[in-house]
Known about the structure:
By secondary structure, the protein is mainly β. The chain has one domain (2-78): Beta Barrel (Thrombin, subunit H), CATH 2.40.10. 12% of the residues lie in helices and 40% in strands.
Amino acid sequence: xxxxxxxxxxxxxxxxxxxxxxxxxxxxxxxxxxxxxxxxxxxxxxxxxxxxxxxxxxxxxxxxxxxxxxxxxxxxxxxxxxxxxxxxxx
Length: 90
């Protein structure tokens, strides 16, 4: 597991806003410190070096989401093994 970042706030629309340490893939699953699924990444925005990530919660009520504020959340590490421009030249 890889640390995604710190939960900053809960939006009025019910999305969990995280200040990310890395850029996740869209629709990546997000977990709490107990490795329980929180939701999925629906939007990535903001500065390139430390973007904000919007997470759509799957099961949580408002009280459980408010308890996440200030806590770290995690994603599974993904190795992207795609072709690069150099590989296509061969």
